[in-house]
Amino acid sequence: MAYDSDNIFAKILRGEIPNNTVFEDDEVLAFHDIAPQAPVHVLVIPKGEYVSADDFVRDAPADVVGRFFARVGEVARSLGLADDGYRLIANTGAHGGQEVPHFHMHICGGQQLGRMLPKG
Ligand code: AMP
Fold it and tell me: The CATH number of 8-109 is which of 3.40.50.720, 3.40.1110.10, 3.40.50.300, 3.30.428.10?
């Protein structure tokens, strides 16, 4: 699937749409989800153009992938989630329920999150 540079996270990265930033460096942006599904719900995205987790781990250089996941951990820790734990989610493609076609990790926490998937 080709990268669609009109997707909402691309617009956020270009500064065309505001975001509530948690962390930013040259390669990564982390910001609060606009419709949080947990007391803490932050999205972490690479600044590179990757449609999904599948694209990211296949096409991004290993050092970029490594630094991305290191940042995810640092952001979670900075949000105070490390001690009690949290959930990382990367919805991927149609069956994964991915809505925005720019790879992103959800960091969700702040309470016991229950079942990983709905029953049935
Ligand atoms: P996914 O279903 O994994 O693609 O998740 C997309 C997420 O992006 C959802 O949790 C949305 O609430 C979130 N989202 C959509 N638009 C924005 C926005 N402008 N700012 C922050 N989060 C957004």
Answer: 3.30.428.10
